[in-house]
Amino acid sequence: MNVGQAVALGIGIVAVLSSVAIFALAWRREQESIAVGTLDKEARKAAPRRPALRAATATQAPTVTADEPPAPEEKPAPKSAQVVELSAAEYGETRRQFLNRATGWSFGAFLAFFGITSLAFLWPRLQGGFGGKIDAGDITEIKEAIFQPDGSIEPFYVAEAKTYVVPFDESVLGSTAFAGLDVVVEGLTGLWQKCVHLGCRVPWCDSSQGFECPCHGSKYNAAGEYEDGPAPRNLDRFALEVVAGRLIINTGQVRDTPRATVKTVPYPQGVNCL
Question: Which of 124, 125, 128 is nearest to 248 (CA)?
Fold first, then answer.
């Protein structure tokens, strides 16, 4: 998991936890308000009876006879707790405002998470991994792996860069659509594995010495130049550079070119795979 994905995941977890906490608090406030409302109702029923009871007790004068001891003094009744009542309009409006704010914060957190995740997905990676610069290896070793003893070639596949590294004749570069582009270094070019028709991965056909898409039949020669099928242009390729004898593929810099009118390599050189 890269740093961008970890940040997006963390933000998503925080957003979900915040939403749960807000709705839990709202539910708790609602339950407490229901309990307070019940207490206020009982207090209102009991309040009118207390003054009448005290008035009736005060009008009855105590009778004392010679044979009976005086009645003990009556202790004053404890004061009842004062309850501040809210009107139905005030109570309902306060709860409604809280729920509206909670819903707004939850929706805002979701939008923030969605926006940051989208930026993390679309923003190119500046270092390492696809979308940045990738070290394909020692350029001499790459050339040794490409050229076969029988004179055929085998593309050097760089999985992290999703790239086929293939040879390219620099002597004819000026007459092709790749002239002036940074896609050829020391006789090598890097082809994106994606078919430019609908994005299928294009495999290498060893017998025909070209790339043939199994999805809709688009075909390209060993240099990635268009040969046949519904593809609108040549295979896309990445910017290349050599640093300290190592081939660096910049997967953040994609170069596309129109269908080649002048082919740099013959195709097919054998039986087609499709």
Answer: 128
Tell me which of 68 and 161 has the higher pLDDT: 161
* pLDDT tens track for 88-125: 555 555 667 777 777 878 878 878 877 787 776 666 55
φ, ψ of residue 248 in degrees (nearest 5): -110, 125
Picking from 209, 189, 214, the residue whose alpha carbon sits closest to that of residue 266 is 209
Instruction: Note whether 131 and 251 are within 8 A (CB).
Output: yes
Parse the chain into domains and list their residue ranges: 3-122, 133-255
Does domain 133-255 fall under CATH 2.102.10.10? My reply is: yes
Q: Residue 185: beta bridge partners?
A: 188
Q: Which tokens in the block code for residue 155?
A: 């593309």
With DSSP H G I counted as helix, E B as strand and the rest as coil, what are the percentages for the chain, rounded to 5? Answer: 40, 20, 40
Q: CA 230 from chain center: how many Å?
A: 33
Say how many Å lie between the first and final Cα of the chain, rounded: 37
Distance CA 230, CA 62 (A): 114
What is the identity of the amino acid at 128? G
Write the CA distances from 274 to 104, 126, 153, 154, 209, integer angstroms: 57, 38, 19, 18, 12
Q: Please check whether residue 222 is in contact with residue 209, taking contact to mean a CB–CB distance below 8 angstroms.
A: yes
| Contact in structure between 204 and 164 (CB atoms under 8 Å) | yes
Instruction: Specify the 3-state DSSP secondary structure of 76.
Output: coil
Asked if residues 162 and 190 have their Cβ atoms less than 8 Å apart, the reply is no
Let me know: does 191 contact 224? Beta carbons within 8 Å: yes
- Alpha-carbon torsion (88, 93, 94, 95), positive or negative: positive
Please state the pTM of the whole predicted model: 0.57
pLDDT in tens, 180-215: 999 999 999 999 999 999 999 999 999 999 999 999
